[in-house]
Amino acid sequence: MADKAIIMKDICKDFKVLNRHEGLKGSIRDLFSRDYKIIPAVKNVSMEIEQGEIIGYLGPNGAGKSTTIKMMTGVLEPTSGEILVNGNIPYKDRTKNCENIGVVFGQRSQLWWSLPLIESFKLLRDIYMVPTKEYEEMIDLYRSLVDIEPIINKPVRQMSLGQRTLSDILAAFLHNPDIVFLDEPTIGLDVSMKSKIRDLISGLNQTKNTTVILTTHDMGDVDALCKRVVIIDKGEKIYDNDIEHLKSYFGSYRTLSLRLADDTWEEHLIDESKTDIMDVINSKQKEIGIKDIKLQEISTEEVIKKIYEGGAV
Ligand SMILES: Nc1ncnc2c1ncn2[C@@H]1O[C@H](COP(=O)(O)OP(=O)(O)O)[C@@H](O)[C@H]1O
Ligand SMILES: [Mg+2]
Fold this sequence. Notes:
There is one protein chain. By secondary structure, the protein is of the alpha/beta class. It folds into two domains: 42-247, Rossmann fold (3-Layer(aba) Sandwich); 252-297. It is built from twelve helices and twelve strands. It has a six-stranded mixed β-sheet with strand order 5-6-7-3-8-9, sandwiched between helices. A three-stranded antiparallel β-sheet has the order 2-1-4, covered by helices on one side. Strands 11-10-12 form a three-stranded antiparallel β-sheet, with helices on one face. β6 (179-183), α8 and β7 (211-215) form a beta-alpha-beta unit. The longest helix is centred in the middle third of the chain and has 18 residues, at 191-208. The radius of gyration is 23 Å and the shape is globular. Magnesium ion (MG) binds at residues 65-66, 183.
């Protein structure tokens, strides 16, 4: 096992895309065109990730998260910079890198569509040459972490989205890789399935000391799983530290929730160093009347929103 799980140094990825022209004439022109533009998707990103960490890799749509993960998994070659995943250069040592990693990309299942899940597992066991004893132990661990009975004999095509995601995550961990990449795993899932999946990821990380790189838009995932977050915006890394550290930047912010006379809840994000919370409460009380009050520290959701709005901290 390498010293660090992941080392990235000044990684850039540019995409070269054709400048498209409109209409039939335009399409024909495009066939012969050399009119390209460069999209810098990832710009000078560096980071080091220790074995066993769960990293929340966050950023708005189009920020460059998936492109980064594709470089870490060896699907894409960086335009420049250095990258080591468990001591391997992913795009060069693709086979070796694959033995050490597991991947779940959003809603695209990696499993055999019409096979019962257990048969997919057996195929993966054979592909990765997992010794029978370790395989059995892993299945036992799965049983202890999540109820696999409803899915284990089901073909993936008959599964709900949640069951499929669960299956994909189990499959990604099956050969006990050092690092697992989860790109938007909880997208589109209901609250109870999200919570099952968080428990599963957390349980596997703790038992196997697996490094997990997680991209998500769900701050509930971040709160439940990640101590450290890396935030990327327009291809550039704008934050890399503990989530608590991030919240301390906004130490004077509070989320004030008010249940009004008409039973609706209203949320205010208040900077206590600028606004007196009692003033807000008093004026609302006069305006419509208040039935209940909740005052909390700023939520992860609000913190991330503020970072996106304001750029680097
Ligand atoms: N294969 C590709 N060809 C051209 N542009 C791409 C390609 N993949 C991603 N991009 C562009 O790179 C940027 C980053 O995309 P992506 O990494 O998918 O962002 P994220 O996962 O954070 O939403 C976007 O502007 C996107 O349009
Ligand atoms: Mg993406």
